[in-house]
Structure formats: C-alpha cells, structure tokens
Amino acid sequence: MISNKMKVLVANSSTIRAMFEEGKRLANLYGAENVYDFSLGNPNVVPPDAVKEAIVDIVNEENPNVLHGYMNNSGYEDVRDTVATYLNNKYALNLGTANIVMTCGAAGGLNIILKTLLNPDDEIIVFAPFFGEYSNYVNNFDGKLVIVPPDTTTFEPNMEALKAALTSRTKAVIINSPNNPTGVIYSDSALKQLAAILEEAQKTFNTSIYLISDEPYREIAYDHATVPYPVHYYKNTFIGYSYSKSLSLPGERIGYIVVPSEVDDFNDIMGALNVANRILGFVNAPSLFQKVIGKCIESEVDVSIYARNRDLLYNHLTSIGFDCIKPKGAFYLFPKALTADDRAFCEVAKQFNLLLVPGSSFGCPGYVRLAYCISYEQIERSLPAFSKLATHYNSN
Amino acid sequence: MISNKMKVLVANSSTIRAMFEEGKRLANLYGAENVYDFSLGNPNVVPPDAVKEAIVDIVNEENPNVLHGYMNNSGYEDVRDTVATYLNNKYALNLGTANIVMTCGAAGGLNIILKTLLNPDDEIIVFAPFFGEYSNYVNNFDGKLVIVPPDTTTFEPNMEALKAALTSRTKAVIINSPNNPTGVIYSDSALKQLAAILEEAQKTFNTSIYLISDEPYREIAYDHATVPYPVHYYKNTFIGYSYSKSLSLPGERIGYIVVPSEVDDFNDIMGALNVANRILGFVNAPSLFQKVIGKCIESEVDVSIYARNRDLLYNHLTSIGFDCIKPKGAFYLFPKALTADDRAFCEVAKQFNLLLVPGSSFGCPGYVRLAYCISYEQIERSLPAFSKLATHYNSN
User: Fold this and answer.
1) Where are any strands of DSSP class E within chain A?
2) CA–CA separation, A237 vs A198, rounded Å?
3) Are residues A234 and A208 in contact, defined by beta-carbon separation less than 8 angstroms?
4) Do B275 and A13 touch (CB under 8 A)?
C-alpha cells in the first residue's frame, strides 16, 4: 500500500540500513573497538560549552510561552537579525532580517527552496560526486536531477560538462563546499567560472538560474583555508546553512537560508519560503535552538581535532599506495578504490572490519568515502587494517 | 520564478498574513489590551515546570554528542519505548518501539504519512469543518482532497455523506478530535459507525483505507470527557500526536506517530515512514526535545485554565444570542455567524476590535472560529465588544 515513489526509495535506502546492521553485527563479533566504522557523518567533536550554557540561561530567563511558542514561520526576528548582522560583519554583506529564514537544518532549508522553485520536470544540476540526498530532495518535487560528471583530477566542478548540461529547463545548480564526499573547497577561480557560465546561460535561455549553496561544512576548514562566499560571485544565490557540524548539533535540526535582496523575484521567493516552511510540516525551525543560535553565533567546535584525524589517516593511506586528494575541509577522505568496482572493494574492506561507503552512492564510481569524524585512537587502531587491505590487493 | 503550485499557496496564505498585520495595526491604534485577537491557536497556558527541569537535567547529565547527535530517523529507541509503554498503560494497547516514529510535531507526522501513502490523484477524505492545512499537506503529494460536508447539528462526521464520498481511489480518511475548529470530541458511537463504514468500503473496493487521526488536542478535554482512542475501533489506523498543546510546546516541533502492528503492510509502512522522515528534510524529530518527552511523558498543562475561558466566553455568547455548541475539548468555539456571509461578518467584527476567523477557512461557511487560548482578563474585556457586535446585527 505504500506509494510507488516510496517503494523505490525504501529499496534504495536498504543499502544504508544493511551497512548499519553489518556494523552492529561486526561490533558484536569482534568488539566495538575492533570495528572501524568510517561510514557515518555524525560529528564526534563536542559542541562548545557555550551551547549548554545558552540552553540553561535561556530556559531560566525567557517567558516559556514565548520561548516554546509559535513565531513567524521564518523564525524569531531577533535571531534572524543576529544571523544577518553576523554574516554582514564576516562577509561584508548588507543583509537584514528579511533575508534570513531559520530552517530545520540544511535538509529542511534545501527542501523549502526546491518546493519554492520547482515545477514538475524542471532541472536541477549537481556536480558528481554529490551528497546522495539531493536526488531525493529533487524527487520530492518531481524535478529532474541532472548530474555533471566528476573532474577526478581536482574534484572541482567540471565546467565544460556544466555548459553542456544547462538547458532552458535548468532551474538551479546545487554546490556543496567544503564538499561531501571529497572534502574539497571550491576555489575562488572555480566560483568565478561557475558564475560566468550561469550568467551566460541566463542570457542564452532568458531564464533565472539559481545557485543553491549547501554549506553544512563551511566552518570545517583546515590549513587556514578560506571558503569563498558564493553571494559575492553570483547574484541569484541561495545559501543553505546548518549548525549540524559547526556546533555539532545534527540531531537538533537547526540552520538557516540566506536570500540576498538582489535575487530575481525576491519578494515572491521570501513569501513562498515562508509558506513552504509551514506547509511541508516544518512550521518553523525548533524554537529553543533558534534562541541558542542567537546566543552562540560566535561559537565553533574545535576543528583542529578533525584536522589531526585527517592528517593521521591521509598520511597512512597515501603511504600505503592510496591515491587521494588531501582535503582542506569537511571530515571526509575520498580515495580511489584499489579496484575499479568500488562496491566490491567496500565488501572486501569489511573482511578487515573496515566500513567504507562506495563512491557510487555519490555518483562517482571507483572511489570510496571515509568519514573521519571518529576518535583519533580508533583511527590509529584502524591503520593496520588499511595496510592489510592494501596488501590484499597488491598481492592479488 | 516561483513554482505554479506555490503561486496559489502564497496567494491563499496572504489572507492569514493580512489578518496578522491588521491585528498589529489595531494594537498600535488602540493598545494591545483593547484588541481582542481570537485568531491564533497559540497556547497561552504555561508549559509544566517539569519541562524546564527536564531540559536542565538532560543537558547536565547526557553526553552532548549523543544528546545532540543523529539517531535512527525514527527517533531515540529509549524515548520511543517510553511513549509505547505510556500508551499501553493508558489505552490498554500492546505497542513497542517499532510502532512509534518520533516526528516534528503532528504537521511533520501527517506529511510523512501522506508521503508514504499517496500516489498522484489518490483521494484523502476530510470532514468539514477541518483544519485548512490538510488541504496543503495532501497537495504536497499531489493527492486529491475530498471534503465531506458538515453535519452542523452535532459537528460529528456526516456518515451518509462519507459513504457517498468513498471510492476505489480513497487512500485515507483524516479525523481530528477534539476538533479544530469546533472543539467537538468525536463520540464512541461516531467512531463505531465510521469504522463500520470504512470496513465495508475496504471490502467493496478490495483496498486498504487508512484512518489518520490527527490528535494535537487529545489532552485538552473538559468536564471529565473521554476522548476515544481510534486504534480500538479500526485496524488500519495511524495516530498523529503532538505535544504542541498538551505541553504548550508548539514552537519546538515535537510529536509522534503510532502505527499498530496490525495495519496492512506494516513493515513496508514503517520502513517508508523512516525514509520519508529523512528525505522530506526533517531527518529526525529535534533530539533534545525527544529526550524531554522521555522525561515528561506524564506531564500535562493545566487544562482548567482553558475550561474557565471556554465557560466565560460560551456563556456570554449564548446569552447574547449566538448559536454555538458547547465544546468539550480543544480551545475553540465555533458559533454561527450572525449573518450568512462569514467573511463579511469577520470584517464587521474588526470594527469592534474583534479578530475572528471565518468558517470558510475550515470548509464551513456561515460560522466563525474563536481561539480562546488567551488570557481570562482579555476575554473579560472583550465581552462588551461581542455585545456591541450582536446589537449591530440585531438592530440592522
């Protein structure tokens, strides 16, 4: 009795569940400390103390009916004002309350943007490798996902392939930087090229093409790398932000959308985002955590913990022959599998208690994703297993 | 550039925004204490102290990465177990963790149920008067809303009209008791009749027809009234529950779905609800408030405050000639307008600083909704305005 769409989706998601079950099975057999689960993007760095302090202060200070009550579907005005001011200072922007919608994480944000924009069969372009959920979000609104093949040399957007993919039905292009699954930060030069191509396409097709920047990893950047702010490059830009990683709060579902006043049809879009937030059933971003963001806007997790994990794992993998870009952000490595079939490679890795995600899940076969948001000690323990995996392939 | 669907939705929602703006305008002109806003269902009774205590205890006791982290998309197992056990004790059921999905309020719950069930053009039956958002939720998944006309004598479901509305495309029937906007609690006898009609229709059409019970007002019941539990009446029942009213936490977006193991295609449905929670962008119900529910499962707001409001307003309105059922639940009165055109009546009411919602917004023209979840003192101050409104109509 479930819908035809859901039948397909449930079948697809059974792979993820199967991996999760496999992890539990292995942990029961060998002990959790001897199973190296690199499959989940669940932050292990603790949220800043400021979060806990803010929660306690807020429940002690605020009127509970206001604190836990309904507000405008776009969020509390004071919180939106705090977010706008923070972004103005950090990125030299000119945002106000009217440019911000508080959302249930970036996932909620992307869904209300797509609900706002998409007519059936409208096209949304993504760059492989891409976060697999984009496919589901676009499908929620009967849009058509158009996948630009990867540039595996740099893992920056493949510009020539983008030009070929743009059509009169292109409604938006989604980017994600620092990227899941590669960890690559899209460069200033890439964003300039991307913007020029989109400007050109808007003229060619006489349409508006929106750039949707999905940014849960913006704050997770290493080696003093800067993450360019797409609003500076292209007028028709939406930012979808999340505090899931920057404050280690993925379960709380808190984030925001930025829509600069310059985007085409700004007023219609803001009205529609507000309504979409309500009718998709979010209603509003969780109210207490909106207020927490208002108090913790300057807080960040200790990113050096992830950087140390990255170095340990990257140095070992490359020393034993893995081919991998050294990522400057997010908490993933995306090495080439040691055999062409990435799914088969992940199956073999399980024999060494290594749980990895095939690149095929991100539209990029032949590679694997390793989420290194686990403890340093666990990564240390996993290194011999990776060596054995490499030996297995070298000796075959 | 916004989608065709959203253009319609934004236009419809401008009425609500217009009323909100009108309220602010009147408050500026006359002072907030002289504007009688009966338009919003935002609880004014304070959340139980237990909620605040639970929040502080939880953030002091729990590992913050677990507390604020990802869990199964259906929610924390311990919380789902607590909910199941509570319901088993209260309603003599046999639920377990596998029968509960924690959701972003009832709105989130209804949306994932409809995402799970609906193919395009499948029919969902609602009983007028009904919460207007059902129309939007069904439209999210391209379903067809079928409205059963009201029985204005009792405001219970119109059974003869239901029989006529059922077809081979009927996927589900939504009920809402205690009801928004009437405050009526559907009786034991009504639920028995409803179940018999649905059983019969399932046989006639050889289909599964689900009953979706939307229950944000279950705990808001007066005069020792009992609210029958639909699971006892009909096998294919979903319960969509919310703590928005029972704990006065509407902004926090916390609730759950109950799916008894006996429903048709139980396993497929639970798998699909889990996936739908993820891909619609909820991902999971907000994590801290899941834990709050785990600690506050026995807590309730002081419903006597609403009962006192109801009595004050109901007694006055009926004394000055309004025709109104005395509701046993929720926090709304639904009197007949003093003229056939309910929208015109609400416009006239504004002249007396009374903000009411036309019954047309609930599929029931000729009536108006008054939300009495405002202070007793404010209701007291409003009574002369209602008297003037009645005099206006009686003298014309």
Assistant:
1) 36-37, 100-103, 123-127, 144-148, 170-176, 210-215, 237-242, 255-258, 332-333, 354-355, 357-358, 368-371
2) 11
3) no
4) yes
Q: Which residues pair with A210 in a beta bridge?
A: A172
What does pLDDT average to over chain A?
Answer: 96
What residue has token string 């999340």?
A242
Distance CA B244, CA A290 (A): 17
Nearest to B205 by CA among B144, B147, B163, B259: B163
Position of tokens 């913790």? A296
How large is the average pLDDT for residues B36-52? Answer: 95
DSSP labels, A326-341: --SBTTEE-PBPSSS-
What's the rounded Cα separation, in Å, for the pair A155 and A363? 12
Between positions 246 and 285 of B, the ones with CB within 8 A of A are 248-253, 264-265, 268-269, 271-272, 274-276, 278-284
The closest CB to that of A105, out of B118, B276, B283, belongs to B283
Q: Is the dihedral of CA B277, B278, B281, B287 positive or negative?
A: positive
Burial (0-12, 13-18, 19+ Cβ within 10 Å), A322:
buried
HSE-CB at A372 with a 13 A cutoff on CA atoms is 32
Cα–Cα distance, B351 to B26 (Å, whole number): 10
Q: What are the beta bridge partners of residue A277?
A: none
B contacts of A287 (beta carbons < 8 Å): 251-252
Cβ-defined contacts of A314-322 (< 8 Å, 24+): A316/A383, A316/A386, A316/A387, A317/A386, A320/A386, A320/A387, A320/A390, A321/A390, A321/A394, A322/A386, A322/A390
Whether A40 and chain B come into contact, CB under 8 Å, resolves to yes
CA distances from B201 to A265, A273, B66, B346 (A): 47, 39, 47, 40
Of the candidates A196, A248, A187, A260, the one whose C-alpha atom is nearest the C-alpha of residue A217 is A248
Say if CB B241 and CB B256 are below 8 A apart: yes
DSSP state, residue B379: H
Q: What is the mean pLDDT of residues B332-359?
A: 97
Domains defined along chain A, listed by start? 4-47+302-394 (3.90.1150.10), 49-295 (3.40.640.10)
pTM over 0.80? The answer is: yes
The tens digit of pLDDT for each residue in B88-117 reads 999 999 999 999 999 999 999 999 999 999
CB A216 within 8 A of CB A244: yes
Gyration radius from chain A CA atoms? 21
Percent of chain B with pLDDT over 90: 93
The Cα A213–Cα B173 span in angstroms is: 39
- The residue-averaged pLDDT of B373-396 equals 95
Question: Cβ separation of B140 and A2 shorter than 8 Å?
Answer: no
Question: Cβ contacts (< 8 Å) between A276 and chain B: which residues?
Answer: 6, 9
On chain A, the residues whose CB falls within 8 A of the CB of B10 are 268, 271-272, 275
Residue carrying structure tokens 């509701």: B327
Nearest to A138 by CA among A157, A160, A162, A118: A118
Look at residue A396 in the predicted model and tell me its pLDDT: 64
Asked if residue B221 lies in contact with residue B227, where contact means CB atoms within 8 angstroms, the answer is yes
- Dig out the tokens for A97 from the structure: 């309350």
Which of B3, B42, B67 is closest, CB to CB, to A119?
A: B3
What is d(CA A26, CA A36) in angstroms, rounded to the nearest whole number?
10
Interchain CB distance below 8 Å, B119 and A52: no
User: What chain B residue is nearest to A252 in terms of C-alpha separation?
Assistant: B286
- A57-75 average pLDDT score: 96
| Least confident piece of the model among A6-20, A32-46, A300-314, B93-107 | A6-20
The two structure tokens encoding residue B367: 């009536």
A105 — contact with chain B (CB < 8 Å)?
yes
